[in-house]
Amino acid sequence: MWKFIANFLLLIALVSFKTNVLTAQKIRVDSIVFKGNDRTKISILNRELDFSIKDSLSTEDLDKRLEFNRRKLMNTNLFIWVKYDYQINKNGNLIVQFEFLEQLYTLVFPIFSLADRNLSDWLNKGAPSQRIIFGINGVQNNLTGRNEKIAINLETGFTQRIDLSFSNPYIDAKKRFGIFTSFTYQTSKNLAYSSRNDTLLYLNSSQVLRERWSGVVGFRKRIRFYDFQSLELRYHNIRINDEVFALNPHYLPNRTQRSDFIQLGYRFSYDFRDFATYPLRGRKVDVLVNYTGLTGNLKFNYYDFGIGYERYFPLGNNFYLSSTHKLKFTQYGKEVPYFLTQGLGYGSNVVRGYELNVIDGNNFYINRNTFKFQLINKIYHVPFLKYKQINQVPLSVYPTAFIDFGYVNIGQENYFNSKLGGKLLYGYGIGLDLVTYYNLVTKIIFPAGNGNLSGIRVSVGREF
């Protein structure tokens, strides 16, 4: 009896060992085929892959490995979609194929934007037409097939503005180092010169209230696949007129009407998200250090620091959860001009439900949490559109629910007479996200701030 049991257990062990050997079997990559990359260089594509020809891949997780690399190719922001396939050749080796639909790389967009922080802020002011900015934005992506980008932005209306920028992610053979640079010139006849009671104060004039020149030059290093470092030097030259100075003598450094100063910034990013434009899985870490001044005036020179953490969780059955955290703090005891003072209420640093407010300050924390369901995720064919880059329309729709928290440290002085600063803020609500091609994301939300309903909010923008 015991002999039978021992033989039976030995048989099970042998079968289990054989199964593990088979499932963990390796297969050699014989070739990697790229199809549809009419402009994009193969070296740019190979930079994203974590395997190469002659490598051996496990058959157990082959599909998972290839899907992982497909997502990295999508994150180059060069393609509308990426597909993969593979087959075994007669020698028993692996042939991997990636197929692409490249974006239109020469894009010209009309500009129709608002001088206000968001659409809700503009509507709250009565939707004044004089606060509309219009113009043209021209972008040349993937200039020579190496993922370079040249952009020009011309604006008129509320502001007069010119932006020129260029970036090249890789300037060396090993694809590790990149450069970027930009130039901006802007004049404003309507200007937010300060804030009171968590609302921006504006000055209107027929004369130019502020003239600004700025330039940036930077270097980027990519370590392996997910780690990025960048170092950038920013120069600002700003002039304000007598009215602005009289209303806020702290608008520029050292209480002057004209100032030029330099900022030196360092950023480290670890980006392990599935899709940078609208992530559903993965995580991202950002660490930023800025040094402003470098003018010899010790009163103005100061550091500020930023830390960001994002986490994205798949919950199963098309449900997802995301949580983002951001912390910013400034060197204690240093005078920061209003031009460089930003707390909550700007850009993505908004507690949903408080879109109409700005809480100015130099130290803040914000946490945004979103629960979502993937209702639609399809590519629609539009036959009456001629070009394949626009007649295949990817569309994803996500009903959402959210809750956010934020806090701004305003100090004892409370220069801006803030009612919301120094308090824990929270906002919650429901919404709908629509994601389509060329990184266009539309978000519609119905938020409430600290228990008070604040109406519908709509935002439309190109992410990444």
UniProtKB/TrEMBL annotation:
Coiled coil: none annotated. Pfam families: Omp85 (PF01103). Residues 142-434 form the Bacterial surface antigen (D15) domain. Its main location: membrane. GO terms for cellular component: outer membrane. The keyword Cell wall biogenesis/degradation does not apply. It is found in: Membrane. Keywords: Membrane. InterPro entries: Bac_surfAg_D15. This is Bacterial surface antigen (D15) domain-containing protein. It comes from Sandaracinomonas limnophila. The lineage of its organism: Bacteria, Pseudomonadati, Bacteroidota, Cytophagia, Cytophagales.
